[in-house]
Amino acid sequence: MSGKKTYPICFDGLFRQNIVLTSGLVTAPIIVAATTAERAAVLSLSFFMISYLTILICRVIPRRLVYTVRIILYALVASVVFIPTALLLELLFPETAMSVMLYIEIIVVNSLVLAKTESRFYLIPFSSMAIDSLVYIAGYAIVAFAVGIIRELLTYGTLFGFYVGSAIMPAAKSPFFGFFLVGLFAAACRAYYNRRRERETAEPELIRKEAEE
Q1: Averaged over 183-206, what is the pLDDT?
Q2: In angstroms, how far is CA 12 from the centroid of its own chain?
Q3: d(CA 10, CA 59)
């Protein structure tokens, strides 16, 4: 029998520990810039390329280096990865990419690269890390598209630029409404998992009482 420890795929990054709903450094681009589905796509693609490539590359950085030095190196690698990412986005989405470029630059110092690498990803085998980090990136994309689609429908009455219906709330493109949506999603997610935790805690007690009767 092999004594090698296995790490099952964990989907906490989708909702329970969603990087957007729990971290301020990646929330701003979505709150301000994810006003359409296409903008959400640009933000999600840039987050994937910058974060995932940086995480994979920085895995080879020796952990014997001082923590501060490692973090600086992570940021430097992310800055280098940003260059081809920006060029690709400008090629695929020339107008949209330029309008959100400032917020793509912020992604270089996101907490998935600067924090989760040290507290989670680099503590598990490479294969598990590769999947686990993808789950967190998927969680980012889920929220980005949810916010972008809702705001585009309300603001412009379109979806990916195609007409769907009348615009019923032009103010939905404002940062305030983006903040409201992200906060609403975060509250709903937290409420769900709190209820789930309470239910899981209560079940053993209920079983014990039924056994005593």
Answers
A1: 80
A2: 11
A3: 19
